[in-house]
Design goal:
This protein is mainly alpha-helical and about 325 residues long. It contains 13 helices and four strands. Helices cover about 75% and strands about 5% of the residues.
């Protein structure tokens, strides 16, 4: 018999990492925006992601809709637990999205406001995403498939640290994207900030690695009972970090971005391996949260058609807008 629950888990896991990688670098460009060397550089930075940012967010919609249809318990527990965090995330994405269009049409007197909306929205969205990840690691207080915790249980010192870590991680994706897509002064600036951002990411990674076993006893048992298996994932992440340092030192253009994506993938797999099979920790597994088999099968027929279309559209967009982005050139 086909296990639709596992198929849906794989689809949603794929959708989430695609969103993190695709939207992560353009959020990272927004986070770095205030620190750019000049206004011309800011124009180039925004133009480097303007053609693709809205398509990147398709993965967020796909993952969210799939999660609602295939694992409705996740919504019934996580949304009440994370209402304010999710609201901040969506507010940040809205401000960032609006700023893309209005900044290019703004007068010199108002352009700064839209630049602030772009940078602030990007930073807020990244911080909120990281805090949500921290809250997921901590787990949720539930009773009879219902969230019974407080409105601010998601906001803890641990979740704030994970939020800061994701902001730095997205900024790292953004800086390596700029290395690949730009040239001249802005590319040199990106080369300079990338090692600093990577050092910050690794510092937060180290803190979270020591802190997580203290926060979650299940993760502690999982980590230290599988020393020769699960620890291969952080080892892979550290290997990617070493590749980034080396590639930046050699002034490679594409490898830093690819290695940063590898760093995110290994970290993401480490999170999944640490919490598996709990989708609403610490109480409910994938099978507890799954919808009816008939519902999963019906939705799967549509998703199996949609995913190739989204992949094809994404690949075509990146192919059309391949190459360097230069001063005076852009999507608008």
């Amino acid at each position: 018999m086909i296990d639709f629950t596992m198929i849906w888990a794989a689809i949603i896991a794929f959708g989430v990492i695609m969103y993190v990688l695709m939207d992560g670098f353009d959020l990272g460009v927004g986070i770095l925006y205030p620190f750019a060397p000049g206004e011309e550089s800011r124009d180039v930075m925004m133009n480097s992601v303007a053609p693709v940012w809205d398509g990147n967010e398709t993965w967020l919609v796909l993952g969210g809709a799939g999660l609602l249809g295939a694992f409705p318990l996740v919504y019934s527990v996580l949304l009440p637990a994370l209402y304010l965090g999710v609201f901040l995330l969506l507010a940040g994405l809205i401000f960032r999205g609006v700023a893309f269009e209005f900044r290019f049409k703004a007068t010199p007197a108002t352009k700064g406001y839209w630049s602030a909306a772009f940078a602030g929205g990007s930073t807020l969205a990244a911080l909120a995403q990281g805090i949500v990840v921290g809250a997921y690691i901590q787990g949720f207080e539930t009773e009879n498939f219902t969230y019974v915790g407080g409105a601010f249980d998601w906001l803890t010192p641990f979740s704030v640290v994970t939020g800061i870590g994701l902001v730095l991680g997205y900024a790292l994706l953004g800086s390596t994207w700029l290395i690949m897509k730009t040239e001249g002064d802005i590319q040199e600036w990106a080369y300079r900030v990338t090692p600093k951002l990577l050092t910050g990411v690794l510092a937060v990674f180290l803190v979270i690695s020591f802190w997580t076993p203290l926060v979650d006893s299940f993760v502690r048992d999982r980590w230290f009972s599988n020393l020769f298996v699960i620890w291969l994932l952080p080892a892979g992440a550290l290997l990617c970090a070493a590749m980034i340092y080396r590639a930046v030192g050699r002034r490679s253009e594409g490898l830093p971005f690819v290695a940063t994506m590898g760093l995110f993938i290994f970290t993401y797999l480490g999170l999944l391996a640490s919490k598996w099979p709990y989708v609403v920790p610490p109480a409910y597994t994938l099978y507890d949260a799954a919808s009816a088999r008939e519902s999963q099968m019906f939705l799967l027929l549509g998703v199996l058609f949609v995913i190739p279309v989204v992949l094809g559209y994404t690949a075509w967009t990146y192919w059309v807008f391949r190459g360097k982005v230069r001063v005076g050139e852009g999507y608008h």
